[in-house]
Design goal:
0% strand; mainly alpha
């Protein structure tokens, strides 16, 4: 467990130089900055990506890194589809649904097999990545932009993992806290889906 947490912190720390470089305002760094800010600037993206990390803590074991990693990989593929203008239907619906489903997975402490959890988050990751890819500025480097949104996503997953692990140490109150947090995410997702948020 401690080795996993150290590994996740190392991943987040490794993304920091790219973030620092992204703020130089020169050349391809502009793509990094735009890519990094895209997931962070959208409530729907933030909630879904934090929920992925929290969901991984519910599952525990290898899921702590496999579930977030599968999201990042499939999000990159979705980003490529968006950059290439491949038609993917129901993107906004899929993104809102991801907030609902992943929020409920956290709230209900859903415990499917790790492979099934990877498949679920991977499906939703394609929608998120596609949205990032279609909104890439025309003058940005696709690679730099993708590195930016992947780094931001890994950071948000790390925050979700940290929250989930911290809540898990709350003893008797941990289940209530997870229900409340996941439920709030799911309700926000309903609001997003209904166009109220």
């Amino acid at each position: 467990m401690k080795a996993t947490i150290r590994g996740l912190l190392a991943l987040a720390a490794a993304s920091l130089p790219a973030v620092a470089y992204a703020h130089t305002g020169a050349g391809p760094a502009d793509g990094l900055a735009h890519g990094f800010m895209h997931p962070i600037a959208g409530l729907d993206h933030v909630l879904a990506m934090v929920a992925v990390g929290m969901f991984a803590t519910v599952l525990g074991g290898r899921a702590l890194w496999l579930v977030p990693a599968s999201f990042v990989v499939m999000m990159a593929i979705g980003g490529l589809l968006g950059m290439e203008n491949v038609n993917v239907p129901f993107v906004e619906t899929g993104i809102a649904a991801s907030v609902i489903v992943l929020g409920l997975a956290v709230a209900l402490r859903w415990n499917p097999p790790t492979v099934a959890a990877m498949g679920i988050v991977s499906l939703f990751a394609v929608f998120h990545g596609y949205a990032h890819g279609t909104e890439m500025p025309l003058d940005s480097s696709g690679l730099q932009y993708a590195v930016g949104f992947m780094a931001a996503t890994a950071l948000l997953h790390g925050i979700g993992l940290g929250l989930g692990l911290t809540i898990g140490r709350a003893g008797a109150n941990s289940a209530t806290a997870m229900r409340f947090g996941g439920g709030a995410m799911a309700l926000t997702g309903v609001g997003l889906l209904a166009g109220m948020i």
